[in-house]
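Narrative of accomplishments. A recurring question from our advisory board has been how the design workflow behaves on a single, concrete structure rather than in aggregate. To address it, we present the structure tokens for one chain from the evaluation set, followed by the sequence designed for it. No filtering or post-editing was applied between the two.
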């Protein structure tokens, strides 16, 4: 049976249907959220942990979902925040800077059995790691996930113009990195 998003959200909030609805929610969005998180975290095992935390947070906070945005945009925002929080905690735990952690993560990609990229893709990941966090997010969302600026604006709570500028700057920096490295 097909439900409108509003009906689906009501099923998620209703204790008599929430378990079944959450199974459907996970089936619908698990893969898309996995790849969004993976683009930020890079490591497969850490991505699985963050994905699980994301769904737990969605489950615990579904009653706070007001419907001001699409359900997926709300979950995407949670996944993004969970990813950033995870990386910040990991950097603090290792007593290194965020930049040092990014470099370490990229270095580990070469030995990651789940990373199927070639040398060019590895170089692209290294270039992306040199970008400021916001530009990394925007670039990943546009380039890898092919989101529209309108969707990104809803998820990141910013204007389409600002996103276009961030993406443009990110592309220029990546091109420059690839030329010089």
């Amino acid at each position: 049976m097909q439900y409108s998003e509003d009906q689906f959200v009501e099923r998620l909030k209703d204790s008599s249907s929430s378990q079944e609805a959450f199974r459907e929610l996970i089936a619908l969005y698990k893969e898309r959220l996995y790849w969004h998180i993976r683009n930020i975290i890079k490591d497969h095992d850490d991505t699985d942990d963050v994905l699980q935390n994301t769904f737990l947070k969605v489950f615990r906070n579904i009653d706070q979902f007001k419907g001001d945005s699409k359900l997926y945009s709300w979950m995407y925002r949670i996944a993004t925040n969970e990813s950033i929080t995870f990386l910040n905690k990991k950097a603090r735990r290792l007593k290194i800077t965020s930049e040092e952690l990014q470099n370490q993560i990229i270095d580990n990609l070469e030995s990651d059995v789940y990373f199927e990229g070639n040398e060019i893709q590895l170089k692209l990941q290294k270039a992306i790691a040199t970008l400021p966090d916001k530009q990394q997010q925007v670039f990943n969302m546009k380039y890898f996930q092919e989101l529209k600026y309108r969707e990104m604006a809803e998820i990141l709570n910013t204007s389409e113009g600002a996103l276009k500028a961030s993406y443009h700057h990110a592309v220029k920096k990546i091109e420059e990195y690839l030329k010089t490295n």
